[in-house]
Design a protein that fits this description.
- This protein has helices at about 15-30, 55-80, 100-105, 125-135, 165-175, 175-180, 205-210, 230-240, 255-260, 265-270; strands spanning about 5-10, 35-40, 85-95, 110-115, 140-145, 155-160, 185-190, 215-220, 245-250, 275-279.
- Helix content is about 40%, strand content about 20%.
- The chain is globular.
- The chain has about 280 residues and is of the alpha/beta class.
- Helix 3 (about 100-105) crosses helix 4.
- The chain contains 10 helices and 10 strands.
């Protein structure tokens, strides 16, 4: 099991230089094929325009998106031309509310999707929509990069967030290629339920699964001493000098997390090391 088909997605090649650099470095490290999808985002929402203007505005927005994606594709091809990895570039134009189509289709056939974190200065709704499309429609694990990651020299000391959920189990399994080469793996459990199925041995079954893949993992059981689970997890990662967090994504609905907040969104907002997520 290995990452042999990787995908990264950009709507603006200039803003995605860091993301593309890390993707190239990671593809080289894993001897993988890198696909790059350039997406031109048509921002029109026709329901909000007055009668008679819709067709003109829609065409103008589509033409702008088409020009944007052509420039992005040209820049990406120029960037990759001198690289010693296997790569391919594709492009698509989609309305902001329909990004799940092209993104989901490409992500379905990728072992790993590599994206910058969707929240923060300069990020748009399209960034969040692309991440969610990869996770939900593409059913792909997504490696989310913080702004300061400049290369693929991460994955040596890994925190695996574990709460017995389907999402966290899928994330742990998706991360096996990384965990096998890590020098330290820490299964981290925050406030395990007193009467849960693992009450006598929190993290024991996951530890056993990993050991059968040749992965030695330590288990840390932590109290929720901070208001948010993501804060406890991030602090623990810093305390043990971890350089990657593996966790399940969106245990609650996307709508609930968007309105009320949740561990996934909070982690994506505050992450200062790469996070590998799966739903």
């Amino acid at each position: 099991m290995a990452f042999k088909s990787m995908l990264t997605i950009t709507t603006d090649a200039e803003d995605s230089t860091h993301q593309l650099d890390v993707a190239v470095d990671l593809a080289r490290r894993e001897d993988a094929h890198l696909d790059v999808l350039c997406v031109g985002v048509d921002q029109t929402q026709t329901g909000y325009y007055y009668a008679g203007a819709t067709a003109i505005l829609t065409q103008e927005a589509y033409n702008q998106a088409k020009d944007d994606v052509a420039r992005a594709e040209k820049a990406v091809r120029s960037r990759l031309a001198s690289e010693d990895i296997r790569w391919a570039v594709d492009s698509a134009v989609a309305q902001v509310g329909a990004l799940s189509g092209p993104v989901g289709m490409m992500a379905r056939f990728a072992d790993l999707v590599i994206l910058d974190k969707p929240y923060g200065q300069g990020r748009s709704y399209a960034s969040e929509a692309i991440l969610e499309a990869a996770l939900f429609e593409g059913s792909a694990p997504v490696l989310v990069l913080p702004g300061k990651a400049q290369d693929a020299k991460f994955g040596k000391r890994v925190v695996v967030a574990w709460n017995q959920s389907d999402e966290s189990l899928r994330a742990a399994k998706a991360a096996l290629p990384v965990l096998k080469s890590a020098s330290a793996v820490n299964i981290t459990i925050i406030d395990p339920p007193t009467h849960g199925p693992e009450r006598s041995d929190p993290g024991g079954m996951l530890s056993q699964l990993l050991s059968r893949h040749g992965i030695h993992a330590e288990v840390s059981v932590l109290a929720r001493t901070l208001p948010k689970t993501s804060e406890v997890l991030s602090r623990h990662a810093r305390d043990i000098d971890a350089d990657l967090i593996v966790m399940g994504a969106y245990g609650h609905s996307r709508f609930r997390e968007a309105i009320l907040g949740g561990t996934t969104r909070n982690m994506l907002e505050m992450a200062d090391i790469p996070v590998l997520m799966a739903h």
